[in-house]
Amino acid sequence: MRKKKEGALSVYRIIDLTDSNGAYCTKLFADLGADVIKIEKPEGDPGRNMPPFVDDIPHHEKSLYFLHRNAGKRGITLNLETADGRDIFKKLIKKADALVDNSSPDYMPELGLEYAALKKINPGLVMASITEFGRSGPYKNRKGSNLVDFAMSGVMITSGYPGKEPCLCPGSPAYDAASLYANISILAALHMRAATGEGQFIDVSVHETSRLGLYPWIVPNYSYALNPGAPPPTHETRMGASVYPVYPCKDGLIRVIALTPRQWDALVRVLGSPEVLTMPDWRSFLYRIGNAEDLYALMLEFTQKYTMTELFEAGKREGVPIAPILNIEDFYNSPHTKAREYFVDVDHPVAGKAEYPGPPYKWTETPAAIARPAPCLGEHNIEIYCKELGYSKEDLVAFRSAGVV
């Protein structure tokens, strides 16, 4: 029989202390084969109560948000605020490669579980702490949220129509950006550990990483401006309509990125080379920005002659990026997502069988995959506490009665 291929990170064990705001970080590890052990308080992760729910029926095992971000993980319950809970946690840390936490900056130190203490137990441990504004500085103890962090990062000013309020992107972009940065940082630390044997502590600020993860190209402007004699950075404005315009077409909307003269020429060919668009001045990017309103009115006459698919395929043929703006149904039925087999079946014992977004990459030798559904509350307590840590079932009953698990 052919040996089953393992994931790229199957040799690692990750302890997951995050709630739904940091769960995407450890999901990325689980998709790549790592053994991710999600630790919840006995009453469960608050994310279990986050809507929407399967069949629109509130249930702690049916939150779509929770099911997606925790697929692939094993799950246990553990109360770190008890002495026995902390002792059990330390046993888990002995065999862990990395720990991810997104509690407040003082929570783990108050429990005696700060990195310095954990490193004495496991010198090779990599720990990532995801907090709203980092573990030091004047904002350290301020409250944050996806909206607050996204707005304070400066990214949100670029969204929305000029003259109207900024728009918040759907979902949780600030927290997911922070999770991605934490994941990459842990991978780098594990790579370095292979050479040094030493673990590292990683301080991740949602406020900072939401900018870096969602709008990175403006960051160098600020760095360059720190040099003596350099001009101050330019103010950010909402230039999307002029730089990356969205146009209606026969059956929806498309977005066009025609920045260079070559791309503009290609766009003109896509639209049938209308004479009004062949004026030499239109080939200048700055001229198009300065006359964006007039250009938009002209473009409507031509884009509305075609469907999204026709414009997308013509853009690919001629060499200009044109993307259809798809709704959820269109994205699900897209030939691209079908060809990539992006949606995969996952069968949850309570929520039932459904199609989930799969990993965003396809590797042949170390395939990424959703190995199991999100854990039910305490699903792997016996497996981990009894079979791996050596506790008896009687111990587990006593722990449960004492509020430890």
What summary fits the major beta sheet?
6 strands, parallel
**CATH topology group of the largest domain:** Rossmann fold
Give the name of the CATH superfamily of the largest domain: Crotonobetainyl-coa:carnitine coa-transferase, domain 1
As residue ranges, the low-confidence spans are none
How confident is the prediction overall: mean pLDDT?
91
The CATH C-level class name of the largest domain: Alpha Beta
Q: Which overall shape is indicated by the principal axes computed on the Cα atoms?
A: elongated
Keywords:
single chain, 405 residues, alpha/beta, Rossmann fold, formyl-coa transferase, domain 3, six-stranded parallel beta sheet, three-stranded antiparallel beta sheet, 11 strands, elongated
Please tell me about this protein's structure.
There is one protein chain. With 405 residues, this protein is α/β, with parallel strands linked by helices. It folds into two domains: 13-214 and 340-401, Crotonobetainyl-coa:carnitine coa-transferase, domain 1 (Rossmann fold); 240-326, formyl-coa transferase, domain 3, CATH 3.30.1540. Helix content is 38%, strand content 13%. The strands form three sheets. Strands 3-2-1-4-5-6 form a six-stranded parallel sheet. A hairpin with a 2-residue loop joins strand 7 (246-249) and strand 8 (252-256). The longest helix has 24 residues, at 173-196.
Task: Describe the structure in brief.
This protein is an alpha/beta fold and 405 residues long. 38% of the residues lie in helices and 13% in strands.
